[in-house]
Amino acid sequence: MCWKCGASLADLSPPFSRTEECRACRAQLHVCRMCRFFDARRTRGCLEPVAEEVVDRTRANFCGYFQPRGGAWQPAGGGAAEARAALDALFDRKP
Description:
13% of the residues lie in helices and 0% in strands. The protein is low in regular secondary structure. It is extended. The chain has one domain.
């Protein structure tokens, strides 16, 4: 699935070239956000210890450790409004 829009990438076969794009949203696919080594909780954003640091993790790069991963797409949550509604329900408050 595309890391940006969630569209299926079944018609594309890995390894993705540096210029490969999602056919639905035109997002670049050889990006950190699409890699199995990507970890947003890390300072460098990467689990691969010898990979060079990439500044923009949503743009195509030349990383030789890139391996596409399934589940890179994360649907957007409700954010603050959803959290407020959950708290209101928890404490039985009317919004």
